[in-house]
Write a structure and sequence with these properties.
With about 130 residues, the protein is an alpha/beta fold. It has a single domain, classed as Nucleotidyltransferase, domain 5, CATH 3.30.420.140. It is about 45% helix and about 30% strand. It has 4 helices and 5 strands. It has a 5-stranded mixed sheet, sandwiched between helices. Helix 3 crosses helix 4. The longest helix is centred in the last third of the chain and has 16 residues. One of its GO terms (cellular component) is cytosol.
Length: about 130
């Protein structure tokens, strides 16, 4: 089982890959980083994840700061499986294209989890 995560300031988008199928999961609402890390740890344990794929922005003016924050967040996890980082640049734009108007409310988290799915598919494509 592989879990992918798109780490945002308000939500964590989440997707899974199991039995040859990649699917978006419900996002994790983020009240603070410690609560979000606990919730992600719980999900990783419940799903029996062996690998965590996290998106890291490689483009943009604040990419270095965002990478530092994401790596810090991953460091808060108790997860001891393999952690991989994948370029998440433009994953939200790709996810928005996948939705194509099916979800009008970006606050429902579907976009975040579809972004995690894009990140997961990028990882799987690199194997």
């Amino acid at each position: 089982m592989i879990i992918a995560v798109d780490i945002g300031l308000k939500r964590l988008g989440v997707a899974q890959y199991a039995a040859g199928v990649a699917l978006p999961l419900d996002p994790i609402l983020r009240k603070n980083r410690h609560q979000a890390a606990r919730d992600l740890d719980l999900l990783l344990k419940e799903k029996g994840a062996q690998k965590l794929v996290a998106g890291i922005p490689k483009e943009g003016s604040s990419s270095e700061e965002m990478e530092r924050r994401i790596r810090h967040f991953i460091g808060l996890l108790e997860f001891r499986g393999e952690v991989c980082f994948v370029d998440e640049s433009y994953s939200s734009k790709e996810a928005f294209e996948l939705l194509r108007g099916r979800s009008r409310d970006r606050r429902d988290g579907k976009l975040d989890s579809l972004s995690a799915l894009v990140i997961l598919e990028r990882y799987l494509g690199s194997l």
